[in-house]
């Protein structure tokens, strides 16, 4: 285990500067970059301000989210001196985002509303969150794991945690990690619809009235200590442990008691092997909304007390809320605080405000208005998000004492499934239809493979009308599949085990239908008319968020988005999570929707003309560590032996080379201790597109004796749903529930446009 993970490079762009040093210097001085917004029309809105970085002009033909991210990444890579080309397969990219290519989304739908024929497929390829990390990888030639974290406002922090996990598990030497989000009409209108914006610069924990939106990108080079030292890199600090939790309370509001926030904070401290009293500085989430500030303050006081031994500030008071970039923007501030021995302030306090805060929070030190010099050895950074997602991480001065939680070394098993698919809405129905050779449900007008859930499904899993009426199709399918997965595995969620059951979700495209409907609504009627009903469903992590609420699951909760392979990536990452966190069970979800909107978008990109037939659905694979399986006496379908991933830097929208798919396969086989000739069944990733078929055929040359199976041949290209279904299908073949499986081992493949490939090896139980 490479337990020493360090930060060797920083890059930052936000409302108060275009570099890490400029931003930190301005933050220390309490400079507020929140001003009247120029990039979003807001004349009829009650709020008109936000934190933009107008000095940066998006290059022609690029999306702003990717452009901001690449700008910050160039600074970070140069600062670190990292030569990606020296060993590109050992350099990964993990980027968090909330709204992704929202500026391109607006452009596309403005063009589409004016004339559908003139709306550009090139703009469609800039819209998904999954494009951002791919574009960064293409810029620098990185060929390791490439992924995007889509946990809304907690995504930036989670990206750094995942980067550290990749390094500690030996899968990368260095990771370009962080987050990026632009100012957009989608986000501005959405928070306006929720009445969550402040008409004045936000004053978190002080005069909490609402948020001020910001934009920006923060990128950190996260690296193994040994790799950094071997190349003589400067080390800013170390990355210690992290904590992730779910509230299972409400899709947009935090739990009032702050219990989930507290759980994330306490887990990050415990996983770092330090005490709460060791923490010198907290960069709080501190949005400025009454509900968040109240919940967060209560949680911090319970964890740290009110004696003023820890300093706390929220830099959102100066840069605004940068959504998916917030955690990485704040991470750069935290690292600079350690480097310089000075913490940035919370802006906006008067002397009277300080007095009032002491009445509310005792001597808890919010560092009003100006930076404060002090010992800064351990720093905690906290972020919370729609869906009730909470993330906390600890940074420490190089060499500071700590004792990280060790990997538990347990085996990981598949113990259940939930399936919503064009071939049935339970695992049993799916298997029976596959065995019978039944035809899947298809759209009469477009030919797509379609899934559907209705009242009968909701009643069967105990989801009430007043809950499911809030859900879009993606969330409906996810909630039904998730609840059925728990039942299939024989798991009852209780107060005692809720924090030991987590979620790793994967989605390629997220809720594109609701995104389109929301965006078209404000194009037609104005920014001030955004739908408060639709907006919560426009974030990619809404579906797993709703599921956590429906099921009462309060453990780990991360949403990944990197194209069609996101479902199999959720299985691979979920298996690693079980080895390094307090969770006994991870529900690995792959979900994507089909609709008129989704079909149109894939027509625009040329994917349908190239041979792809869209599908949809939701598949939930229950992953469980061995000690939990034994304690429950659970049925086991298969064992997850290992995984591999590789990336061929290529233009987003195209598939990469066969050599990288083979590399992903070889890495998975090596980790599993299995040879190619041992594999009896291969579940393939080809989807009708000629270039992918050719790449897969070449990569599978050594598996000529293995049986080849494709779920996409029978259910269409359901993207993340299909790649997760491929894992479930393989496990059921190994168990005998689906006929025709051969051998003791199965290899499952996933491929995404942009050049990312994933492979997982399963063993018969």
TrEMBL record:
- Name the GO cellular-component terms: cytosol
Q: Which UniProt keywords apply?
A: Transferase
Q: Name one GO molecular function term.
A: 3-oxoacyl-[acyl-carrier-protein] synthase activity
Q: One Pfam family name from the record?
A: ketoacyl-synt
SMART domains recorded: PKS_KS
Keyword Ion transport tagged: no
- Coiled-coil features, chain-numbered ranges: none
Q: Where is the signal peptide?
A: none
Quick one: a GO biological-process term for this protein? Answer: fatty acid biosynthetic process
UniProt similarity note? Belongs to the thiolase-like superfamily. Beta-ketoacyl-ACP synthases family.
Q: What is this protein called?
A: 3-oxoacyl-ACP synthase
Q: Which organism is it from?
A: Candidatus Protoclostridium stercorigallinarum
Q: What is the lineage of its organism?
A: Bacteria, Bacillati, Bacillota, Clostridia, Candidatus Protoclostridium
